[in-house]
Amino acid sequence: MVQETIDFDKELANAQREHDESVKILTQHGYVVDMTQWMTIKDYAKKYNVSTQVISNWISREIIPADSTMVLPELNDIRLVKDQVYK
């Protein structure tokens, strides 16, 4: 088994840059979003060890309610999911 090496400083810097850009765009358009409560589907999948396809299925079946998702057109229609456990 090959161990993948992760450059945490680089990943953290990338995440911070993306976060800052997102907040800037949202603020410019009048949105105020607590980004500590929301995450991308990809990040949610990693955190809770499920596939992005499962999460999309949960959204379409309303296991994840509509008020727990958000689409941001200013960020190429990125979909955010509220950071909580769904079942």
Characterization of the model:
It is a single chain. The protein has 87 residues and is of the alpha+beta class. The protein has one domain. The protein is built from 3 helices and 3 strands, in the order αβααββ. A hairpin with a 5-residue loop joins strand 2 and strand 3. The radius of gyration is 15 Å and the shape is flat.
Q: What's the layout of helices and strands?
A:
Blueprint lengths: L7 H21 L9 E3 H8 L3 H9 L8 E4 L5 E5 L5
Antiparallel strand pairs: 1-3, 2-3
Q: Keywords, please?
A:
3-stranded antiparallel sheet, 3 helices, 87 residues, alpha+beta, single chain
C-alpha end-to-end distance: 32 Å
DSSP summary, beta strand count? 3
The stretches of 5 or more residues where confidence is low (pLDDT under 50) are none
Q: Tally the structural domains.
A: 1
Largest sheet geometry: 3 strands, antiparallel
Sketch the topology as an H/E string, one letter per element.
HEHHEE
- The share of residues in helices is 40-55%
The total of helices stands at: 3
What quaternary form is this? single chain
Q: What is the radius of gyration? A: 15 Å
How much of the polypeptide forms β-strand, as a percent range?
5-15%
The overall pLDDT average reads 87
What is the strand arrangement across the widest sheet?
A: 1-3-2
Protein name: Helix-turn-helix domain-containing protein
